[in-house]
UniProtKB/TrEMBL annotation:
Domain Moybdenum cofactor oxidoreductase dimerisation: from-to ranges: 238-354
Tagged with keyword Transferase: no
Protein name, entry field: DMSO/TMAO reductase YedYZ molybdopterin-dependent catalytic subunit
Gene Ontology terms for molecular function: heme binding; molybdenum ion binding; molybdopterin cofactor binding; sulfite oxidase activity
SUPFAM superfamilies for the chain: E set domains (SSF81296), Oxidoreductase molybdopterin-binding domain (SSF56524)
Species classification: Bacteria, Bacillati, Bacillota, Bacilli, Bacillales
Ranges for domain Oxidoreductase molybdopterin-binding: 45-218
Membrane-crossing residue ranges in chain numbering: none
Keyword Phosphoprotein: no
Cofactor needs: Mo-molybdopterin
Length: 355
């Protein structure tokens, strides 16, 4: 069957809220591994920031030997690193949780992928050094506002532990897909933390502070925390690494089909290692077959997969996809339910009817 419509249609972002602007990537209509800036999902907690000056500097202070402020020109002149990275909102697929949870009801498109260019954080730290007491790196963005239920304005701030901050692939990015970083995605500088959910990749970087204690800002101590119990906080733990996951892009859920041959298509990704296996079930999970990759399985990026399905019998079918990564993580039948709705990664499941 000819699926050339993928290259002909002009999909647009799916709006979830206007202020702050939150929009999904039309992931079911994406045929490429690289998402252009116009279709890259947008996740904001506050309105877009306003810069009062064209001069931009990034200060690094705290538990460092030599505090320093870097100009954009200095950062541009340092050795650069380019990486292909999938970014996924921790709330991706939130609308699929049962029982339902409150929060932005993301479907399957709160994720995108592209090529980021910037400077490894560890390169900048060569100029400042680190004190022995250094424990975490706090990244503060220029975006600010009031959290629900609070009258106090705060900036969006997150921290990284020493090991993750010093990973060579953790970069301060200034380009996306060989173009200057778009304003709505963090211009002039944003953090990119491969393997972790998107909340870690702080946009519109204002400053970096190295601290000798655990950071307890509200976007780390209250939000982006798994709370497995609906009422109490017992058993809570931080949202960090992306779960192994997959999405069926074609056919669409509840689509009507005719008998014939179809290429079932989708993507799979993980925060640890790389995808080693994607399986498809055409009978609601009773049996599973291997899918073939249509793109390379690489660390930090998704793999595209397909499966040729010849269907001659009319009726209703439940299709499922299940991914496995190189650390042995497998998509579960049911997700870890948590009251804020993070990290949904249950086996992807759609229904179609063949007429």
């Amino acid at each position: 069957m000819d699926h050339s419509f993928f290259s002909k249609v002009k999909p647009c972002l799916i709006t979830k809220s206007f202020v702050p602007e939150n929009k999904e990537t039309p992931i079911h209509f994406i045929a490429n591994d690289i998402i252009g800036r116009k279709l890259f999902y947008r996740r904001n907690h506050f309105p877009y920031p306003h810069f009062t000056s064209s001069f931009y500097f990034l200060p690094i202070s705290g538990s460092v030997n030599s505090p320093r402020t870097f100009s954009l020109q200095e950062i541009y002149s340092l050795p650069a690193k380019t990486i292909k990275v999938v970014l996924e909102c921790a709330g991706n697929k939130r609308e699929l949780f049962e029982p339902k949870v409150f929060g932005e009801q993301w479907g399957k498109g709160a994720m995108s992928q592209g090529i980021w260019k910037g400077v490894s954080l560890r390169t900048l730290l060569q100029y400042t050094g680190l004190m022995n007491s250094a424990r975490e790196f706090v990244f503060e963005g220029y975006d600010y506002g009031q959290r629900p239920g609070s009258s106090q304005s705060i900036s969006f701030s997150r921290s990284l532990p020493l090991k993750k901050a010093l990973d060579p692939d953790t970069i301060i990015a200034y380009e996306y897909n060989d173009q200057p970083l778009p304003f709505k995605h963090g211009f002039p500088l944003r953090l990119i933390v491969p393997g972790w959910y998107g909340m870690a990749s702080v946009k519109w970087l204002k400053k970096l502070t190295v601290i000798d204690h655990e950071f307890n800002g509200p976007f780390q101590a209250d939000d982006y925390v798994y709370y497995p119990d609906k009422e109490i906080d017992t058993g809570k733990f931080s949202v960090t690494t992306m779960n192994v996951n997959s999405t069926i892009q074609f056919p669409l859920n509840m689509q009507l089909l005719r008998t014939g041959v179809y290429d079932i298509k989708g993507i799979a990704w993980t925060g640890e290692g790389n995808i080693t296996k994607v399986e498809i079930s055409l009978d609601d999970g009773q049996t599973w077959d291997l899918c073939r990759y249509t793109s390379a399985s690489e660390k930090n990026s998704w793999v595209s997969w397909s499966y040729k399905w010849e269907v001659q019998k009319k009726g209703e079918y439940t299709l499922q996809s299940r991914a496995t990564d190189s650390h042995g993580n497998v998509q579960p039948k049911k997700p870890l339910w948590n009251r804020k709705g993070y990290g949904f990664n249950a086996i992807d499941r759609i229904k179609v009817k063949v007429e």
